[in-house]
Write a structure and sequence with these properties.
globular, single chain, 17% strand, MIP18-like, alpha+beta, GMP Synthetase, Chain A, domain 3, three-stranded mixed beta sheet, FeS assembly SUF system protein, FSCA_dom_sf, 3 helices, 109 residues, Fe-S_Maturation_MIP18
Length: 109
């Protein structure tokens, strides 16, 4: 991977994070990135994106819609060729995965 490609990939990664920070869990007034629901974002040289994420619980009421929203919003970035969202519960989500900002917002600090 050339340095230019690496920079493009990093820039795209930052754009993806910005998009993820616009998506909120409907039950918690914090975006899914700060909640720690995004485990990893992979971007290849063809600008295909794979997002590994979890939900607050397997019975989460938005289990059907949240991954679709993530996929559609990331795919809406002009430079993204394709997006795949994979849900995992390994490791299961806990409040420890939340950012300090999210914990502060929810009065957990």
């Amino acid at each position: 991977m050339s340095e230019e490609t690496a920079n493009d990939t990093q820039d795209l990664g930052e754009k993806i994070v910005k998009v993820l920070k616009t998506i909120y869990d409907p039950e918690i007034p914090v975006d899914i990135y700060e909640l720690g629901l995004i485990y990893d974002v992979f971007v290849n040289e063809e600008n295909e994106v794979k997002i590994l994420m979890t939900l607050t619980s397997p019975n989460c009421p938005v289990a059907e819609t949240l991954p679709v929203e993530v996929e559609e919003k990331v795919k809406s970035l002009d430079v993204v060729k394709d997006t795949e969202v994979e849900i995992t519960f390994d490791p299961p989500w806990t409040q420890d995965l939340m950012s300090e900002e999210a914990k502060l917002e929810l009065g957990l600090l």
